[in-house]
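User:
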Amino acid sequence: MKTVTEFPRKVVEFPDMGIVMPDGCRLSARVWMPEDAGDDPVPAILEHLPYRKRDGTIFRDQLTHPYFAGNGYASVRVDMRGNGDSEGLMDDEYSEQELQDACDVIAWAAAQPWCNGSVGMMGISWGGFNCLQVAAKQPPALKAVISLCSTVDRYADDIHYKGGCLLTENFGWASTMLSYSSRPPDPLIAGDNRWRDLWLTRLENQPFLLPLWLSHQHRDAYWKRGSICEDYSAVKAAVLSIGGWHDGYRNTISHLVTNIHAPVKGIVGPWIHKYPHYAGPKPAIGFLQEALRWWDRWLKGADTGVEADPDYRAYVMDSVRPARWHPERPGRWVAEQEWPSSDIKVEAIELIAAGAKPAIVTTSQSCGLAGGEYFPFTFGPELPGDQRPDDALSVCFDQPVLAEALDIVGAPELLVRISSDRPQANIAVRLCDVHPDGASELISYGVLNLTHRNSHESPQALVPGETASARVVLDQCAYRVPAGHRLRIAVSSAYWPMIWPSPEPVRLDLSAATLRLPLRPLAKGHEASFQDPEGATPWATETVRAANSERHVDRDEKTGIVTLSITDDFGAVRDLAHGLANGSIARETWVIHPDDPLSALGKTHWTQTLSRNEWSVRTETSAEMRSDAQNFTVSARIEAYEGETLVFERDFAETIPRDLL
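Assistant: Predicted structure:
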């Protein structure tokens, strides 16, 4: 990445600009703007997050926000209430309070003497979600949005449920947020006499969100609120949507470009859950230059040509050897001027011949360990590995060796006629690229809770032995399968630990299966291009502890129990400007017996540390989830230490009934 140090306008920074909400709650903002913005006002760009600007997102903030400011914007990075250096309390993700606060910040920014009255909003993940949700509320000053790694449907395409199946990331992310929000404000910002009171109040009111999320197992009003797919026409701001093929939120770009009525464009690269000017796998792109083209057009009225850009630009990845991490993905950029594209044709492939015996699917509960993380973000061993171990536990439909290469661009589907011996069953479908030597690379996957085959709002139990029709939609993808390889469609009734297992072992009889494959004419080369990545001066730190990620699978040959252990030590660093040192370690354990779905167990343990000179704090958060046939049982614990003294402890425990899961 090229570091840019000279900009058209000189930048000044305000590390703690207070923004007081109508109810008196003070939010803390870090703001960069041109030094002369008071004389020559500029548009504002808002990023509104719970992830701590002082030490959480500072790496990416340092690359991004001064760059915008130097190019004539006021870049406003706000800690949401109840997090970082802001006052108040947070009770849920994407709450009405959170969205109203963002609207109030937008109105505040637009009214400042250094702002010309136009505001944009951007963000990745949580920030990508809430900028779309805020856009749907239509605050008058909001003119444009850049949303990365986000969703339009909080139920069907977030970390909670997928195809009506319970994602274990539901538990994982609740554990993560318990840890993230357990940290105090910085005493240098909050004050030596206030930080501790703010911290203890925050801890006393800290929610463990998993029981709330588990209490809404259908797509009810709780999930519809904040899902912009309920009314795409509510979004009037111009939307640039960006995502990555190695991220869990890869479907949103197509949904937005297809359905938004306001100006909208989409870009999908080979990346994990990161901003694309520093993301991996490479190639990264000049995201900040691309963002400036968007901001300059919609916030300044400049003719930057963005309206003539293709609706959908996607990176078609070449086949590679399976690996848990790819530093780079070879391939090419393709461009579709309109999306959906009339150039993409759907080929139907019958997997079971008429009159053939049904394929019987009875899957080991440990199938899925090669699937990787739902949204990788550590630049570590989190991508799907060689699929052969999972293929061996699945029913596989191998296609003939390809005489010519195929470009698959879009969302494959599997239409099935299926019966189950139990009233509830899950089905997982993987599309794989099988190399001549048998290595199996995951192209895309989809899962479906078969009780949700007709509706996520009103599931219907299966009638054992009765055949039903279902449609399994796999994730969007862009992938070239070379000549000499073959396609494999692998079907299983378990996909651990991506989804929580059914309460009973299941037998599925698959009597018909049709793969619908979206094929695009082979791209002969790059059809789109981007500038090389740039960024402002990187964050200045010293390393206190190096980062390290590990992933281990242990199979106890005596008991049969399979354990996946993950440790992500994010290391510890000290900020060379303000002296704050921060570090974190995440540990996950996923346990299951291949024959017993009720043996499923998830455990997490997070450690967070903050220190400066003689001052130090540490939080330890842990959580556990298991189930029987009728209920989920969840528990969690927070411990907070000042120095080595325990100053706070709290336990959570709850039982939530299972409802067709």
